[in-house]
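Ticket #4471: structure output looks truncated?

Reporter: J.K.
Steps to reproduce: submitted the chain below (138 residues) through the standard prediction queue, then opened the result file.
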Amino acid sequence: MKRIMAIDYGDARTGVAVSDLLCSIVGTTAVVPSRNREKALADIVRMAREQDVGEIVVGLPRNMDGSEGSRAALCREFAAELEAASGRKVTMWDERRTTVEAHNILSQHNYHGQKRKNTVDAVAASLILEGYLAFRGR
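Returned output as attached by the reporter:
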């Protein structure tokens, strides 16, 4: 079985979470600088190859009413580029409230300032991956 990777795509930083070998829990996380989109794409493709990822899940930021805005369009575009560059199946996954939940988790664990800024995207990617793995397990 190949691992599953989740992506929380952002303008400045992109959170990455990769499942364990059994695809049951989050195994590793990372944050990739993403101001240079091509470099971020190359870094993620490299990570997917190194960690034997078979499927990639990209968070889709929907509005609370379920509609999609400009941010969702950017994520869909990135996902299409990622699928072409990696040769792996890319699935879009509703990520509503993951960043809010990530900030709450980090607050509860006393992560503030720069420490939080450098971690929140990886936590959000972990929440995307956890939701997707739970869905697959049903």
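Triage note (M.O.): checked the attachment and the full token line is present. Strands lie at 3-8, 13-19, 26-33, 53-60, 89-94.
Status: closed, working as intended.
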